[in-house]
């Protein structure tokens, strides 16, 4: 199965490295980023390209563009990991549309296109008899989509809730365990690289809300957008409030929740017993799935990181290889 | 896809009910237990059979035996859930062998055959180009095998450890939280139906060890048997020892661990920080998977129960339907 990688930052490079290092039966035949591209129908020399990228900043030649690759016949699956605006979904959205319309499978880590245009992209994939997979868009290394689609297939999912943002979880963990103020904990998160210079996207609950939108649309077909999510961030949580909760063996976490029967779609700081499986430490993510047969299933793992994102992308690629590609 | 169910206790009945109640594309065409059997190539009336079973104790007629069904052409997948001796694996082992040799897929919840004869059964399935699936044998409703095979496919798994026995976890939870003695907690577990009259199999760590054997063989091809597992049960754990651990924000759980690089395959009471994701309450199971790309993934859920076991079996059936059956 031939792979084209669009976007050659840390995630794209990680995917290329894993495919090369492991016996996956996958071949990378095309790579491009905004500056350059390279195609080889018989398989690229990833080692040489990584070296070139490191020394020159280029993965290929400026003559070969992303468009050249997407419209080419050099690949079966597009790995779409280009830097993308989460609000417009571009340029990833255009890339994904073109690849699906051209009868190519797509695996992406970009939340924007999947949260904004789930229905359209899903229909486009079905029309063209290909798969669109996006495990990496929700909770990084946690195989949440695989679990829902296959691991607990046949279950009715009544509710889904959890910790969807590692930055907020780190800040709240530090406030609870060390009695830090919100500002102190945020500063620490920034120093450790867990929070960006402008932390709005994380601490205001937007990142978690976008993940809820993806899940609401993918799991229940709810046709929701970001505007439909009730969002309260963690920036008003005080260490006094956390201390009060801790005295009762509880704590505060930023919980995202989807409960279709009760029309709940919200992200908010929530008091939760410390013994609850969702109370995880530091930057971990955790999700509980309520089902009719299996009861509650909780998944815990790393929600971010380039290796973790590559892990989710590789699992999607291998799923297409094992469960779709050989059907032809 | 046509399903034959062998064994019509609570799990077999649960599987039949779920297939009937949900739009799965599956049809139950044959059912048998030790006393009777029934076949209908166009699909059985499950409602009528359940009613009959309840009033007469029979699912069909004594003239139709398990052997008749297994050797028939009335089914594509055998759901093997007959009451089976975990030490000999019989009668399930014989049933599974015959179905696989006859070119039928097999889904089972019986630990015996899978822990005793993994290599043989695995090879037999491969020879006959069919699948043997056994999600229900390890940790009930937790989709552990699906996660390892697909959710985190492409990852190298270096170590796997967790709480594999709900009875022991219940007893240790009660000893920790209420200061009960081992005997008091065991009595309580018995009254609630969590422990059997003879609790040896659970409290001596044998049940957990059998699950480790299945995982060691399935994940790493380690060719292990029960005799290879170092086992210490929970029957010598004192409430004083737990209280000591609790004073340091730790507790004691029965942890099963597979660490191939360090030749570790053991079940033993282990001191573990109370904040660790594996510290779950009551009868829950929890497993942590250490990987090269995804980091640590922890799965928590119900490890036993007929609905939970049915959930795992249904997921296996749907996986065969989606990812195998339509390849033909």
Notes on the protein architecture:
- Two copies of one chain form a homodimer.
- The first copy, chain A, is of the alpha/beta class.
- Chain A contains 13 helices and twelve strands.
- Chain A has helices spanning 10-21, 46-56, 66-70, 92-101, 111-116, 118-127, 144-151, 166-178, 182-191, 200-203, 206-220, 239-247, 306-323, and strands spanning 2-6, 27-32, 37-39, 77-80, 105-108, 132-133, 157-163, 230-231, 250-259, 264-273, 284-291, 296-302.
- Chain A has a six-stranded mixed beta sheet with strand order 3-2-1-4-5-6, sandwiched between helices. In chain A, strands 8-10-9-7-11-12 form a six-stranded mixed beta sheet.
- In chain A, helix 1 (10-21) crosses helix 13 (306-323) and helix 4 (92-101) packs parallel to helix 6 (118-127).
- Chains A and B meet through helix 7, strand 11, strand 12 and helix 13 of A and helix 7, strand 11, strand 12 and helix 13 of B.
Give the topology:
The structure is a homodimer.
Chain A: E1 2-6, H1 10-21, E2 27-32, E3 37-39, H2 46-56, H3 66-70, E4 77-80, H4 92-101, E5 105-108, H5 111-116, H6 118-127, E6 132-133, H7 144-151, E7 157-163, H8 166-178, H9 182-191, H10 200-203, H11 206-220, E8 230-231, H12 239-247, E9 250-259, E10 264-273, E11 284-291, E12 296-302, H13 306-323
Parallel strand pairs in A: 1-2, 1-4, 4-5, 5-6, 8-10
Antiparallel strand pairs in A: 2-3, 7-9, 7-11, 9-10, 11-12
Helix pairs in contact in A: 1-13, 4-6, 8-9
């Amino acid at each position: 199965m031939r792979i084209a990688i669009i976007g050659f930052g840390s995630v794209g490079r990680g995917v290329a490295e894993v495919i090369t290092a492991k016996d996956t039966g996958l071949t990378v035949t095309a790579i491009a980023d905004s500056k350059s591209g390279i195609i080889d129908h018989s398989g690229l020399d990833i080692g040489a390209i990584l070296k070139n990228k490191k020394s020159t900043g280029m993965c290929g030649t400026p003559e070969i563009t992303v468009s050249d690759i997407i419209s080419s016949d050099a690949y079966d699956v597009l790995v779409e990991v280009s830097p993308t605006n989460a609000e417009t979904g571009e340029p990833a959205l255009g890339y994904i549309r073109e690849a699906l319309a051209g009868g190519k499978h797509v695996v992406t880590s970009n939340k924007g296109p999947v949260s904004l245009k789930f229905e359209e992209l899903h229909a486009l994939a079905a029309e063209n008899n290909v798969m669109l997979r996006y495990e990496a868009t929700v909770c990084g290394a946690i195989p949440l989509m695989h679990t829902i689609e296959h691991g607990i297939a046949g279950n009715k999912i009544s509710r889904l809730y959890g910790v969807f943002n590692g930055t907020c979880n780190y800040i709240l963990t530090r406030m609870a365990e060390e009695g830090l103020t919100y500002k102190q904990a945020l500063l620490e998160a920034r120093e450790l690289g867990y929070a960006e210079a402008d932390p709005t996207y994380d601490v205001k609950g937007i990142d978690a809300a976008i993940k809820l939108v993806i899940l609401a649309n993918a799991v229940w077909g709810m046709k929701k957008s970001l505007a439909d999510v009730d969002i309260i961030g963690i920036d008003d949580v005080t260490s006094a409030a956390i201390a009060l909760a801790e005295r009762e063996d509880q704590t505060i976490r930023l919980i995202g929740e989807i409960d279709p029967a009760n029309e709940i779609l919200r992200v908010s700081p929530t008091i939760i017993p410390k013994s609850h499986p969702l109370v995880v430490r530091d930057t971990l993510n955790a999700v509980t799935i309520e089902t009719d047969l299996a009861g509650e299933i909780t998944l815990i793992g790393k929600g971010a990181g380039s290796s973790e994102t590559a892990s989710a992308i590789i699992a999607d690629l291998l799923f297409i290889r094992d469960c779709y590609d050989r059907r032809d």
